[in-house]
Design brief:
Elements: H1 3-17, H2 20-40, H3 46-69, H4 73-87, H5 96-103, H6 105-108, H7 113-126, H8 133-148, H9 153-159
Helix pairs in contact: 1-2, 2-3, 2-4, 3-4, 7-8
Length: 164
């Protein structure tokens, strides 16, 4: 079942359950997906649909920031609730261990500026751009530190369970 079909199915369930916030969020998601389909002049695959949903999440996060600055906490809470609904359709987040397995830091080299860029590109390719550049960079720096300073491995593992 594609993401668009799942959204449609969940939309009918939300109508039956009379969940207004969920229904309005699903309608917004469906219209964004439909607009992208019209723009592409064809149906969307799951990768394109996920890209649309990540754009919607970014827009909501930006709105939350503006609403909190403008002293509108009720609207910020509504946007946060919409993000939670949209994130249900996103794949599970990639953990630091999975990134380490994909990047293979020893094969790329130690902790260095140029090497970090190579690791970031490889990480973002592996994750199909589902994690932000900032998260990718932070994970790669953490992993590179562990490789270059083995004495910190135990300490680092205790402090950081996974990337933010």
């Amino acid at each position: 079942m594609t993401i668009s079909e799942q959204v449609q199915k969940d939309m009918t369930e939300a109508m039956r359950a009379r969940e207004e916030l969920r229904l309005s969020t699903l309608r917004m998601m469906k219209s964004a997906l439909k607009n992208k389909e019209i723009e592409r002049r064809g149906s969307l695959d799951d990768a394109a649909a996920l890209q649309v949903l990540s754009t919607l999440i970014k827009q909501r996060r930006d709105s939350i920031e503006h609403f909190t600055q403008g002293a509108r906490p009720e609207l910020a809470r509504k946007e946060a609730a919409e993000i939670e609904i949209i994130e249900r359709y996103m794949p599970k987040a990639i953990g630091e261990e999975e990134i380490a397995a994909a990047v293979k830091i020893p094969a790329i080299g130690g902790a260095g500026g140029r090497k970090n860029g190579q690791r970031n590109r490889k990480t973002r390719t592996y994750s199909q751009d589902l994690i932000s550049y900032r998260t990718s960079a932070q994970c790669c720096r953490n992993l590179a530190r562990r490789i270059s300073r083995p004495d910190l491995i135990a300490d680092h593992s205790a402090r950081v369970s996974r990337c933010p």
